Structure formats: C-alpha cells, structure tokens
Protein 1
Amino acid sequence: MIEKTFVLLKPDAVKRGLVGNIISRFERVGLKIVACKFIQPSRELAEKHYPLERREFVEGIGKKTLENYREMGIDPVKEIGVSDPYEIGKIVRGWLIDFIISDPVLAIVLEGPGAVEIVRKLVGHTLPVKADPGTIRGDLSFDSAFFANAKKRPIKNLIHASGNFEEAEYEISLWFTKDEIYNYKRAEEEVMY
Ligand code: TYD
C-alpha cells in the first residue's frame, strides 16, 4: 500500500525557478521525500529513462502527437516526414532526450499510500493547455502541442512522473542507488497511518 514513485523536475521547472513551488505541493498532501538528486543527466541515462524498447510508450507518444496534428489540421508527413506512430514517437523521444540533458534536473522519490496515482493527479494532463487549474502543469505552464510541434521541440510541461508501479520501480532503480533512498518517519504518520 505504501508506494514509492519517481518524479523528475525537467530543465524548464529548474530554469523558471519553480522547484520550491512544485515540491511544496507534494509535501503538503503528505507525500514523503525519500530521495532527491540535482543532476545534469548523461545521454545514456536519458536514453534509459525513455527506453526505445518500451514500444507501447514510444508508440503512445506518437499516437498522441498524431492526434494533436489531426486537431490542428496539420499533415504529419509534411511536418516531420513520417506518419507511423512508432516513428513519430521516436522523433519526439529524441527531442525529449536532448531537452532533459540540456540543463540540470531534480530527480525525486516520493513515498506514501497510493503515491503513483496521487502524484499523477497533482501533475495533471500532459499538455499544459489542457491541464486543469490546481494541477502543477495547469497552474504553472501554458505550453501546447501547437507551439511545441511548430518548433520541433518537446512539450515544456515541467515534470515527469511515473505512470504506474512497474515504471516507478524501474525509474527509481535507474536514477538512485539503494543507499540514496532514506527511511524516516514524517510527523503526521501517527495521525494518518
Ligand atoms: P507521455 O508519457 O504521453 O505523457 P506524461 O509525461 O504526461 O506521462 O509523454 C511523455 C513526454 O513526452 C511528455 O511529458 C512530453 C513529451 N511529449 C511531447 O513532447 N510531445 C507530444 O506530442 C507528446 C504526446 C509528448
């Protein structure tokens, strides 16, 4: 029941000075920071974070991008030369990797009951323009697929958060060693647990 999840504050969050604002949102709901690292990732680490082998993930990004193009009335072949979701996903993945290695990021492990789902809820929709007010992406960013695709860059949505428990386990072990993850009690655990 007590889960750990992984979040990454991307370079836009760091360079816009939003780190404190974002972390305080996790702290105030009661999630516990059990690991934290400020790091400019290597290309190798970024490649592993967005693994090409996770075909459904790459294809998923491609499908969402195609859907965004369709909504905007843009022909994907004219725009980026391909229309296959996996191929489009690979291109967007390349933009994402270049972006997250371009400047420092803050990697965090958060712990709490149902942490994966709670963090996803606080983070909000992938596209800031569609993210609800009250969420991190909805409150703190305004990027849209329109701007991102036009500039051939990833959507600047401030933060990555593990999508499910298995992804969280993989990402935590990728970014942190066991001895970088701490075990302590937060004051309100007596009331809440
Ligand atoms: P995804 O896993 O679909 O979203 P989320 O971050 O909400 O789990 O996509 C991963 C990242 O890929 C997303 O945070 C931003 C980037 N991305 C783009 O840059 N352009 C796109 O069209 C899509 C769908 C995603």
Protein 2
Amino acid sequence: MRLTSLLSILARRGRVVLALGGLALLTGCNFNFWRMDGHQSTIDVNGPVAKSQLEVFYATCWVTFVIFVLVASVLAYATLKFRARSEADEHAEPPEQGHGNPLIELSLIGASILALVIIAVPTLKSIGYTYDVPAEEKANAYEVNATGYQWWFKFEYPNEQIKDTGPLVTANELVIPAGRPVRINLRGMDVIHSFWVPKLAGKVDMIPNRGNFLWLKADAPGYFWGQCAEYCGDSHAVMRFRVIALGPKEFNDWLNQQTAPAREVAKVAATDQPKAQFAAYRTDWKTNEKGWTKEFDLNPLDGWRAQQFPDTKHEDAALIAKGRGLFQSKTCFSCHVVRGHMVGGSGAYPDLTHIGTRTTIAAGVLENSSEQLARWISHPDRVKPGNKMYVTGYIPNNIKLTPDDVSALVAYLHSLK
Ligand code: CUA
C-alpha cells in the first residue's frame, strides 16, 4: 500500500472519530473516564504523603513513556523502511542474520540501569518521607488508633480521655485536624484489612497481633473517601470509611461535642403517644442497591457540617422515647455503646453515642438519611452480606422489627447528636 493512501485512510478515520466524539459531547455523554478528581483518585492529591507517592508514579510514567517512544519509533522506522515493495520482495529469502554487537548490548544494559536508577531515587526518597512523621513536625503531630473489623473501622482518640470510660471512640468517620500531621496506629481485630485514603495517603495493612502505622496530613479542611484495600471476606468491597479534616476551632468544637455523653431528648418512661405519623419506609431494597444521593456528593463537607446539629423542629420526643425503649428491648444495647443512655455494649461493635452526627452508616456505604438508616436496620444482610449484626445478632436472637419499630429506632438514633 502506498504511504499516501495509508495517510488518507487515517485522515478519513480521524474525521469519523472526531465526529463521534462531538456527537457524544452534544448528547451529554458522561466523560467520567477522563476525570481525574473522583472520590478515590490518587491523582487529585490533598496532602504531602499522597503527593510524594504521586511523584513516584509520575517518575515511573515518564521513564516508561520515553522507553515507549524510543522503541515505537525504531519499530515504525524499520516497518516502513524495510517493508516489502513488490511481489518479489515478499517471497525473497531473509537477508543474512547478524548477532553479537557488544556496543549495542552494553548500551542497552547501561540504559536499563540508568532507567532503574532514575526511578529508584524518588522511590527511596518517598519511602523515607512517607514512613513516619518528619522529625521537625513530630511535636505538632496528632495521634489516632484505627482498628479494622469485619466490616467496619473503629477510631480511637488516645489524647481525649473521657472520665471513667477511656478514650473517645467513633466509627467509620475519622475526624482529624487539617494542616497537622496525623499518626494513625493500625490494627486488625479478626483478619487482615488495609487502611487507604487515596487523596491523603497510600494503603497500609491492618494486621491482627502486629502493630502497623502510617501518617498523613490534609492540606486544608475537606471530606475524603477511604476504603479497605485488602480482601477480608464477603463484604470487603463495602468496607469503607471517611476522613473529615477540620480547621483548629472546628476540630476542637467537634471533640467537645463527641466527648460529651449522648444527647438526652426523652427518657424511656415517656407515656405520650408519638405525634409524627411517618409514611412507611421502603422495604423492597435489593442487594447492592445504591444508598446515595447526588446532592450529598456535590458538597459533602457542608453536608457533614449540617449533620452536626439536631433537627429540633421535627423531633418527636415520644417517638424517640419509643425508639430508646426498643433499642433496649430488642437487645441492640448489648453490642452497641450509647454512652450516657444505657449500660451495655462492647468495643467490638460500632459506638453509636453520636451516630446522628455522622454522614454515613454501615461503614460508609449508605448516606445517614432516615430512609437509608431504616433500610439498614430492616435489611442489614442486603447491604452487607455476612455482617455480624445480622448473622450473630438478628438471626440467633430472632429479632423482628415492625415498620413502626423501625421508624422509632430511626428517630432515636438520629437524635443522638
Ligand atoms: Cu476489610 Cu477488606
């Protein structure tokens, strides 16, 4: 084939590709593939640790890109220059084959070593930097313990000791001070999990009986998506969490609110009838159905901020009291701590003292709305197959909840701010 005809075919195809692309744009085709700032992007970094790891990625990309261009150019040159130009060429014997050219072989070995050295320098630098909080920042570092359970994350604040109780404990949403290094001690309670907040730091395993740690820093206040990154059983893929970074004052306010006991709206003894008549929540949820609204995704940090305050206008004290009673009678309290409300619970299950202030439930899988909380309480197995609330809680204890029970429990849990 003549070179000119080859080029004209390429030009025609190029126009088709352009036209299809334009059409896709006009029809509002979603080009998410090209977006680099998704929730779990490692390219859109928001802290020095993730940035250092991204630099290693780019160094490797550039080296391999140069190798690709060199090899592809030689290949293209040889393909065009030595192509068969006639029938006779096509059937000709191959020319005499040569082998053993010390100059070429030594230069290729040298070039390979050079490429590896170019990658090794930023790699070693980054390994040193990301390993632990830099010495000059140690004094300013904040410490948190994170423990992986099947399938949720427990966060402990060893610096915030609550009288007669121990350290502040939360679940699935890790609130940290922005602009300060945070050293996170990592443990696994049952199997190996892995702690990963792509925009802030690369993953480190959470291993039973072995202390691991990592450090990270958020440059500015923000809301970041995290994910367990080590296969850990049925619901590994839905073992998520969030990191919320706050400025100094806001972080302090948050600590004060969280270390306080659960908010009191109504005691169990209330005899009033609930005023609010809830429309029944949906019950036909399917496994893997989305638990998320787009509105929340647009501005999650402001969503989180709004979630910190009680909705006193719409609260129904009698319904909350009913929910509080059910939380006891249905034995929820024997696993979950609600500090200040009832004695019970264990550290092996999510602490619910301030569950109303979290933006997510079920380890970051569902938005913490009334509808999604009702879905989680009524069908935990459809959200997280194999989860302990269902398998070792609901089934052996024969826990059954009517739609009214679910409404009351939702009202109670959401009052816990
Ligand atoms: Cu925990 Cu995967």
